[in-house]
Known about the structure:
By secondary structure, the protein is an all-alpha fold. The protein has 3 helices and no strands. The protein has one domain. It is elongated, with a radius of gyration of 28 Å.
Amino acid sequence: MIPGSNMKTAISIDDRLLQEADETARLMGLSRSRLFSVAVGDFLKVGDFLKRQREEQMLHRLNEVYANAMQPAEKRLLKGIKARVRRTVKERW
C-alpha cells in the first residue's frame, strides 16, 4: 500500500454501534470512513502506549531484581573481572 493512499474495506459491525458511529460522525462533521480511520488510529496509539507501559514495568521489575545484593559467587566473579580490566588498562597505557 502506498503511504497516504486509501483502501476500501468491508467490515461487519453491530447495527447499534454503526448507528452510534454515524451519529458521532455527523456531530463531528466527519464522514463515517474518516471517523473509523481516526478511531482505529487512536486505538493503535493506545496499544503502543500500553506496550510501552508493560515494557517499562518489566524493566522496573528487572532493575529491582538486580538491585538486590549479589551472591558471594557473583561478588567474587565481579571482583576478578574488575581486576582483570584494571590490569589490561594499565598494560595498554
